[in-house]
Specification:
By secondary structure, the chain is of the alpha+beta class. The protein folds into two domains: 2-307, Beta Polymerase, domain 2; 309-372, no CATH class. It contains 18 helices and seven strands. The strands form two sheets. A five-stranded mixed sheet has the order 1-2-5-4-3. A two-stranded antiparallel ribbon has the order 6-7. Strand 4 and strand 5 form a beta hairpin. The chain is globular.
Length: 372
């Protein structure tokens, strides 16, 4: 039944996509299987899609199950509203401090890319700030009472080498503050200047907030789907599908952007996996391009670092060293990796020995570079 639940979880995530050849059961699930599906839906943050499938009778349910879906989705939307209130408050604080930002994922994707924002739930607030503003933004949010959950190794390494940090409010809500899109070798190929040169706005509570432009949002969604965790999360793939099938992006500009970021293999992999997981029959210009795309040996080695359940902070960071341009910066980066403090080791669940921590990362990095 686990395999069937995997298929059903993907069917929920694919609901409403044109050309999706996914099947729902012919009759309501038994209680144990239904409870498992609800748990998966909550974890995947696809309650809006399940609610839509139930509401249109695509997913057969009992009366009790219908009420449970409604309760689950209502709770999810309440959390999203609290997070959007936090987003607006944080936007005010950053504006007053003169710190530019872009809204990533979550609310931005829900309002700009989904046909109905209620279909796209989210679990935190994601913001991008410039590297030179990163430390000031962290201090600002700590100054209003938010608690930083994770630290980067070494003083000053946040704004030089870090990808993001997480801050929690007193109510347990979280803000992910980013200065890059991802950890690892792809962190250093993204042209962040280009990201800040173009943007798209969306309305939230009568206020205009700035997000990435359409092509950058697709690339960020591809990064999140392929580089953000293994195996790829259903909602991350749904974001890719939603943007490509309903969005207002330009194929040529998108492919050119992927190539300029040395990330065309990531984009192609995200598109192929989305079409495969959701069994999308419709062929688009981008899906045809992705089917023809072949990663270079170096691109394949980079992707292998992320597409494994052994993926962790150390090998990704070590792989990124090659992309650090100046020799003294490489030395500084290696120093922060080889001498992290105890708190960092604990939060990444690494071994307490600093040497063992680095050695394990080297081994995983080396394993990721073996031909497959």
């Amino acid at each position: 039944m686990i395999a069937q639940l995997d298929d059903l979880t993907d069917a929920v995530a694919a609901f409403g996509l044109p050309g999706a050849l996914v099947d729902f059961p012919d009759a309501p699930l038994m209680d144990d299987d239904w409870a498992s599906l609800l748990a998966r839906t909550l974890e995947a943050r696809t309650s809006g899609l399940l609610q839509a499938a139930v509401h249109t009778d695509a997913m057969p349910v009992t009366d009790d199950q219908r009420e449970q879906v409604l309760d689950l989705h209502t709770g999810t939307m309440v959390q999203s509203l609290f997070l959007e209130a936090l987003l607006l408050a944080t936007a005010d604080q950053l504006d007053r401090a003169g710190i530019p930002f872009r809204v990533l994922k979550g609310s931005a994707v829900a309002h700009l890319d989904y046909t109905d924002p209620a279909l796209r739930a989210f679990g935190d607030v994601d913001l991008l700030v410039r590297s030179e503003d990163f430390d000031a933004a962290v201090e600002l949010l700590q100054g209003v009472g938010h608690r930083r959950l994770f630290r980067h190794p070494g003083k000053g390494s946040d704004r030089r080498f870090g990808e993001s940090t997480t801050l929690a409010t007193a109510d347990g809500l979280e803000i992910d503050l980013h200065r890059r899109f991802v950890l690892g070798p792809y962190a250093l190929t993204v042209d962040l200047h280009r990201v800040w040169d173009s943007s798209e706005s969306f309305d939230l509570g009568g206020r205009q907030l700035m997000a990435l432009d359409a092509e950058s949002r697709v690339m960020h969604a591809a990064f999140h789907a392929i580089l953000g965790g293994y195996p790829a999360r259903a909602l991350a793939l749904r974001d890719v599908a939603e943007m490509l099938l309903f969005g207002c992006y330009d194929d040529r500009r998108l492919i050119a952007l992927g190539e300029s970021w040395q990330s065309d293999a990531v984009l192609a992999r995200a598109v192929r996996l989305t079409w495969q997981r959701f069994r999308l029959a419709d062929v688009t210009r981008l899906s045809a391009w992705a089917a023809r795309h072949r990663a270079t040996p170096e691109q394949a080695r980079r992707l292998a670092l992320y597409e494994t359940d052994r993926s962790s902070y150390a090998p990704h960071s070590l792989a990124a060293v090659a992309g650090v341009s100046r020799f003294r910066d490489k030395v500084a980066f290696l120093r922060t990796l080889s001498l992290p403090d105890g708190a960092l080791l604990a939060q990444h669940n690494e071994q307490p020995s600093r040497v063992a921590w680095l050695i394990r990362g080297v081994r995983r990095h080396a394993a990721g570079r073996r031909p497959t």
